[in-house]
Amino acid sequence: MNKLKKAVEELVIDTNISKRIRDYNELHNKLINDEEITTLRKKIQTLYDYTYGGQLLGGYPSCELCDPGHVS
Q1: Global pTM?
Q2: 6 in any annotated domain
Q3: What is the pLDDT of residue 57?
Q4: What is the per-residue pLDDT across 1-17, written as a single tens digit (0 to 9) for each?
Q5: Residue at 67 is within a domain
Q6: Range of the domain at 44
Q7: What CA–CA distance (Å, rounded) separates 43 from 13?
Q8: Is there a contact between 57 and 51 (Cβ–Cβ < 8 Å)?
Q9: How many domains does the chain have?
Q10: How far is CA 30 from CA 14, 21, 38, 52, in A?
Q11: In 3D, which of 50, 28, 31, 29 has the Cα closest to residue 39?
């Protein structure tokens, strides 16, 4: 138990881990507040809702995901 306690204490005072956590939190906050990411997440959620809600997408230009110049 003492070894576990010591290992946890060392993790808490390790400056590299603390810096990585701060960097992660900073990047996470930037992503959450990024306007383009928010717009993309909304589009993905809408597509998901349409697909799993049973609505047919109908291809271009209905869903605007398909390239109109691309022939399958």
Answers
A1: 0.40
A2: yes
A3: 57
A4: 889 888 888 777 767 88
A5: no
A6: 2-52
A7: 42
A8: yes
A9: 1
A10: 25, 14, 11, 30
A11: 31
Tell me if 61 is assigned to some domain: no
- Six token digits for residue 12: 């808490």
For 5-69, the DSSP string reads HHHHHHHHH-HHHHHHHHHHHHHHHHHHH-HHHHHHHHHHHHHHHHHHTT----STTTSS-S-TT
Token digits of residue 64:
């605007």
The closest of 41, 17, 39, 21 to 29, measured between CA atoms, is 21
Quote the percentage of the chain above a pLDDT of 70: 71
Q: Say which amino acid occupies 16.
A: N
Residue 19 domain flag: yes
